[in-house]
């Protein structure tokens, strides 16, 4: 967890905020949001909101009243409390990539397996820059679809002692997540008192929530576990080609889900999600890492603070590149840097994203860790005092000398500057002698070495046995 005390980069005037507010209010009152769950609709009906068929037309002031019930900051507990997280305020948390069906290892792209999942959980545990492995770091295609969530949850709970994400594929999977969390933390009361997980609830944009996501939201909200309500918006496909129009849609969609969580359990934590990018209008493919994504992050951060909500950035190290190359790096930096500038509280896809989210890449995981390390150092406030002025060094060297041998340098040279983990500063001849390795090759060496150095966190044997028994029992019940 990083505390970002740098000034926020805000681009909206008060008049612009007022225009955007009129925009989302008009969407909810005149167009409404399609709710694909009778139970969720009943919550809005009991709250006195207008409903026609499956479309809810919530009163904007009602939405604002519900949103005001959500805390602006909260704690997410880990089984190792040294990894507890503050969500909100100046705190930034970084989550591994999420949702990829393929993995890329060097030059090989293949379907992900449970062995890949386990390795990626271990990497997320190993690197301190990653605060949570998340959940679907990759989609293990070698495990049965209806029970693979049990295998993933077991790995997340045993191979890492950081907070994790809950499964949202169905109500049953959410219940399994909660049941296993109760085993891990001792009781339902323990996780309701201090939440131990969060879960991504995606809106089926434009302006529709499907039933499975709503079922998961209802389960997690009832247990007091925070959800990240995230409209999935590719401008030109799921939203208009205008950034303001898309931000208005994002706000309308997210506020309806956040209000629903409050109707289920007033005061339950929530996180305003954003995932906004452009569509390549030549190919129809998603485009990541462009200026539109950066601008949307600045706007979302400013609006989240305006409404008093913690927020999730829509990147992360996002890129459309097919391999770990220069494009992957500059596009990822162009979504990660704005997240820092805008003061994001939760940064998804912070390590490993490749190929528009189709692949989790081991080498890209390491490149993204280097980007995180650099930005954390860059956004650490500069300390300016008499000691940092180092007058004694000027006094020693005086005119025309050099500082390499100065006492000030000799006492600080080991720690005075940021030392990159991945970059090469060798001269050309030495670089050639050492194999002429590029960044991707060096990154491959790093993740393999990290797995060799990985230490599995301790877990009580009785808890481990109870988790194993639960997974075995549920697998039999599911027919696997």
Concise overview:
With 480 residues, this protein is an alpha/beta fold. Helices cover 45% and strands 15% of the residues. It has a domain at 2-10 and 66-378: TIM Barrel (Alpha-Beta Barrel).
Question: Which range does the strand content fall in?
Answer: 15-25%
Number of strands: 20
Which blocks of ≥5 consecutive residues have pLDDT under 50? none
Provide the CATH architecture of the domain at 2-10 and 66-378: Alpha-Beta Barrel
Helix-and-strand structural type: alpha/beta
Fraction in helix: 40-55%
Rg calculated over all Cα atoms: 24 Å
* Average residue pLDDT: 97
CATH H-level homologous superfamily name of the domain at 2-10 and 66-378: Trimethylamine methyltransferase-like
The end-to-end distance, rounded to whole angstroms, is 38 Å
Please report the first level of CATH classification, the CATH class of the domain at 2-10 and 66-378: Alpha Beta
Characteristic key phrases:
single chain; globular; TIM Barrel; alpha/beta; 10-stranded mixed β-sheet; 480 residues; 45% helix
Give a verbal description of the structure:
It is a single chain. This protein is α/β, with parallel strands linked by helices. It has a domain of 322 residues: TIM Barrel, CATH 3.20.20. Strands 1, 7, 10, 11, 13, 14, 15, 16, 17 and 18 form a 10-stranded mixed sheet that branches. It has a 4-stranded mixed sheet with strand order 3-4-2-12, with helices on both faces. Strand 8 and strand 9 form a beta hairpin. Helix 4 packs across helix 17. The longest helix has 22 residues. The chain is globular. It starts with a strand and ends with a helix. The model has no long low-confidence stretch (mean pLDDT 97).
